[in-house]
């Protein structure tokens, strides 16, 4: 945006000092990620595990997203599967 937007988007290039701050912050983030992965045992993260079971038809029908669009599964159902789903 700075290169091509210029005054239209009111953007100005960063100074060398600001670029170095950004570079240092990014490098610190990468190093901190490695420290977390290496030092902390994986068992600490087990409590944050999310079940990855597919949604049932009832759960999917009641979801917020279902109000706005058909799900991929619903859009790929053939006619016989759709009629069975309506009966149930």
- How many angstroms does the end-to-end distance come to? 53 Å
Overall body shape: flat
Low-confidence stretches: none
Mean pLDDT: 77
Q: Work out the radius of gyration.
A: 25 Å
Structure in a nutshell:
With 88 residues, the chain is mainly alpha-helical. The protein folds into two domains: 2-46; 57-87, no CATH class. Helix content is 59%, strand content 0%.
Account of the protein in words:
The structure is a single chain. The chain is an all-alpha fold and 88 residues long. The protein has 2 domains: 2-46; 57-87, no CATH class. The protein contains 6 helices and no strands. It has helices spanning 2-5, 16-39, 57-61, 64-68, 72-76, 79-87. The radius of gyration is 25 Å and the shape is flat. The model has no long low-confidence stretch (mean pLDDT 77).
Give short descriptive properties of this protein.
88 residues, mainly alpha, 2 domains, 6 helices, 59% helix, flat
Secondary-structure blueprint:
Blueprint: H1 2-5, H2 16-39, H3 57-61, H4 64-68, H5 72-76, H6 79-87
